[in-house]
Amino acid sequence: MKDIDCLVMAALKTDLAKEKYVLYRLRKDWALIVGEAAARHSQPYRLQHGILFIHTDNPSWSHNFLTMQGKLLAAIGKALPRKNGRRLVSVKTLKIFHGVLEEAPEAKVDERPFMPRLDEKHRCPFCGVPLIEGEIICSACRRKRDEATRQKIHQVLKKTPWISYEDCRHTVECDKMTFTDVKALLGEWAMGRALDPHAKSVDKAFAVMLTRSLSPEQLSDERIDAIIEKERSRRTYVPASGKQLHHKK
Length: 249
Fold this sequence. Notes:
Blueprint: H1 3-11, H2 15-28, H3 30-34, H4 36-39, E1 42-48, E2 51-56, H5 59-67, H6 69-79, E3 82-83, E4 86-87, E5 93-98, E6 118-123, E7 130-132, H7 139-159, H8 165-168, H9 176-194, H10 201-212, H11 221-234, E8 236-237, E9 245-246
Parallel strand pairs: 2-5
Antiparallel strand pairs: 1-2, 3-4, 6-7, 8-9
Helix pairs in contact: 7-9, 9-10
InterPro entries: DciA-like
Pfam families: DciA (PF05258)
Protein name: DUF721 domain-containing protein
C-alpha cells in the first residue's frame, strides 16, 4: 500500500475503522495480491480481529486457497500498510468459505476511500468533541479514564493486597484483564523489594499477600519466609558448572 494509506490509517482512531479501510484496499488490489485467475473466483469478505474471511465461488477454489494459506498470508502481509517497518494492521488467520461473490460496483467520479466520519450529533460524554462512527468515547478521554482506573486499582491493592477481582469490582469499576495486569506489575515490584537481603518484614508480608492472595490471618513468619525463599530459588538457576546465574528482575 502507498504512503497515502499510512496517512489515512493514522487518521483512523478505532480498530474497526482501520480494519474496514484495510478491507477496502485488499478488495481493490485483490487481483494484484493473488493473481487474476484466483481473483476471478474469490473475494475478501470481512476483516475482524486479524481474521480475514474470504469467499470463493466453488469448493475447488476453497480447497486451493486452504492448501496455499501460508503463501496467501505472506502476499497479504506485503500488501498491508506499514510505518517504520511495522504493520499497522495484521492479518493472522484466513477463513475460507464457499459463498456468493459480490459484484464490484462501478467506479464513480467522486468515489472516495473509506474515511472516518465525524458525527456532530454524537459527542464524547466527557469532553464534548464529535465522535468518529463506532466510538462511544473519544480516544483522549478513554486513555485518561483507563489510567485513572489503573490508579484506583493500584490504591486498592496497596491497602488490601489480598483482594480478589470480584471484591475489587465493588470499589472500582474495571475489567478482569486490567485488574490482573495492574496486580502483576505491582506484584513484580513488591517481590523484587522483598527479595532484597535487607528487606523489612512488612515488605515481605506485602509481597506475599499480593502475589499469593493471602489475607493477614493466613500469614505467619514461617510461611512468609518459606514463600520468599521459594521465590528466590525460582529466580535462581544453578547450571552444571556450579556458577549461579540470576534471572533478570
